[in-house]
Write a structure and sequence with these properties.
about 240 residues; alpha+beta; Phosphorylase Kinase, domain 1; D-amino Acid Aminotransferase, Chain A, domain 1; 2 domains; seven-stranded antiparallel sheet; binds thymidine-5'-phosphate
Length: about 240
């Protein structure tokens, strides 16, 4: 039954059909990967933490008027989301130099950027998710010019809302990756997840990394820091 309903199995989540045509069930997994799956481990507790974190973040964005696919949390590891066609882009927005940007352009990690910059990566594991530009997106028919415009506007708005949200809990939002979905009527809306797996979160006071870079760079255990992010978010959600 479960196997029949399985629509998609990703690196960190499984997606199942439900009895409702426009509703999917997402099951978060403890499986943790980096380097496009080359590094892989089971990190017990991560699924539940990410499910709770993304639920709180999406609820907050809904409150701020930002449309997204989140419907409700179903259990510790599961949530219900609207069924949308995922636009095959990883949209990254950066406020501070870090990660691949710092490396590619030799701009020291931690250097604030004069304005937030958006990058697009083509979601294609076989190609290793290459960095692409707006012309590539149009040529590959990933999205239309109007859709790209909408995605960029939404991404700037989401960035502003998230900077504010994380600032409230003493966290500097360095950068993050989001994905968008397309409804049957063509509406573009925020989908996928927003968690410490997909964001760089640095403690404002100590500069401590509160995100998946700990795992990517073998710097420490991610469970206690994800727990810390969740607890801080829960305090302002009350
Ligand atoms: P990058 O600096 O490695 O390009 O990552 C930019 C942001 O995107 C960072 O917050 C981590 C996130 N990210 C993902 O969520 N998934 C990915 O596959 C990659 C490469 C980055």
């Amino acid at each position: 039954m479960e196997t029949e309903n399985l629509l998609y199995e990703g690196k960190a989540k499984k997606l199942f059909k439900t009895n409702e045509p426009n509703v999917l069930r997402v099951e978060y997994l403890d499986q943790t990967t980096a380097l496009n799956g080359a590094k892989k481990d089971i990190v017990t507790g991560k699924a539940s933490l990410n499910n709770q974190i993304t639920a709180l973040v999406f609820e907050r964005l809904t409150h701020e008027g930002i449309q997204n696919h989140f419907i409700k949390k179903k259990s510790k590891n599961e949530q219900l989301v609207e069924a949308v066609e995922i636009v095959q882009l990883e949209v990254v927005i950066r406020n501070v130099s870090a990660g691949s940007f710092a490396k590619r352009l030799a701009i020291a990690e931690g250097t604030p950027l004069a304005f937030p910059i958006i990058e697009f990566y083509y979601k294609d594991d076989a190609l290793d998710d290459p960095l692409i530009n707006e012309d590539h997106i149009k040529i590959l028919q990933i999205a239309t010019e109007d859709e790209i415009k909408t995605i960029k506007m939404q991404t700037y708005k989401i960035n502003e809302a998230l900077i504010k949200l994380f600032k409230k809990i003493g966290i500097c939002l360095i950068d993050f990756k989001i994905e968008f979905g397309r409804r049957d009527d063509g509406t573009i809306l925020l989908a996928d997840e927003i968690t410490p797996d997909t964001c760089r979160l640095w403690d404002e006071k100590t500069g401590d990394r509160l995100d998946k870079d700990l795992y990517r760079k073998n710097l420490g255990d991610i469970v206690p820091v994800y727990q810390e992010v969740l607890e801080r978010l829960e305090k302002i959600a009350d």
